């Protein structure tokens, strides 16, 4: 059942919240030994919350729009009573969190029920979903393949229908990549739109938190419930609530939709080309817009990511270097040695690049681009061939996502159900126009062009 269907059934007395949560816990118990998406299951907490919702309904009290809906979060979110491991070995020594992250509190205020914390790439520095401490989260359509990262457990849990909603983070593509590989919808909101309070950071100037779901309506329901200012996150907007659910069914015929050209049409496998083509054809999009210097934007994003990440982890690198994933450790050490003038140039270029997109969005409302260059690679795969060049998989999965998160644009990743594996397309909108990206995604879903396929790998 979708989150919307569960909430409607619970609020209408056709299903108890307890039954919904027991069913989710049973699915997790049955299938997560294969998917490895969860690192913690908060069963007692979830059952107690479900009973409280049922008691409120019995007493005639109002319940929220997500009443009884099970959800889970990437384990870099603070969950009261659990150490916030952020995919690492080192963080397991932290004291348990005393309070939930803001976004967990807001979802539970809307009636949703947290059922656990999810596997992820160490310290969110990953595109594969492979974790050396907890093992890889697996693709629900072929368990020999990657779930994508760094929010791999989130993608695996939703793609595997263990929960209808999950939360993840996206610094350079970590919501959009698992959405693409696992065949689900994901929303990276505008930078600063959703609070990051009480979550473990990676790159403060790029970090976004956002939802995954199997339908656009569920994605919008979760997003709307989490909106709002929060003094706990200095980057969080002071804009008021801007609900998107009431706008989903609005037509998109008035929107100016274009295809991102140049850089975004290179370094792609045939399946990525086909996915963008299907989406563009369905929307009647024929205009191609050149995005200037996107390759340089990706390079600048790397510079800022690795240096900010290194600064964050410098003390841990000095004290416990052997407790890191070696691949993560080595990239962080390299980041610590990047000359300051390069970082300064990257930041100046970032301002210029943002201005270029401001010009683009004067004549275009939506840009279409691949979410990943290919469908999910095999677990452990080291290299792939992009445009005739052998390149490392781990570093290049986010080749089309990094230039977008670099300037904090809102994106909905939509799954195109190709055979044998799904792949995602980015629906990119101007800052603060999540409503437009969600409308386009909803239209494509109603047309049957995009959909979250049923898991078939286990």
Automatic annotation (TrEMBL):
<dbReference type="InterPro" id="IPR014087">
    <property type="entry name" value="Carboxybiuret_hydro_AtzE"/>
</dbReference>
<dbReference type="InterPro" id="IPR023631">
    <property type="entry name" value="Amidase_dom"/>
</dbReference>
<dbReference type="GO" id="GO:0003824">
    <property type="term" value="F:catalytic activity"/>
</dbReference>
<dbReference type="InterPro" id="IPR000120">
    <property type="entry name" value="Amidase"/>
</dbReference>
<protein>
    <submittedName>
        <fullName>Glutamyl-tRNA(Gln) amidotransferase</fullName>
    </submittedName>
</protein>
<dbReference type="InterPro" id="IPR036928">
    <property type="entry name" value="AS_sf"/>
</dbReference>
<feature type="compositionally biased region" description="Basic and acidic residues">
    <location>
        <begin position="133"/>
        <end position="144"/>
    </location>
</feature>
<dbReference type="Pfam" id="PF01425">
    <property type="entry name" value="Amidase"/>
</dbReference>
<feature type="domain" description="Amidase">
    <location>
        <begin position="20"/>
        <end position="435"/>
    </location>
</feature>
<feature type="region of interest" description="Disordered">
    <location>
        <begin position="133"/>
        <end position="154"/>
    </location>
</feature>
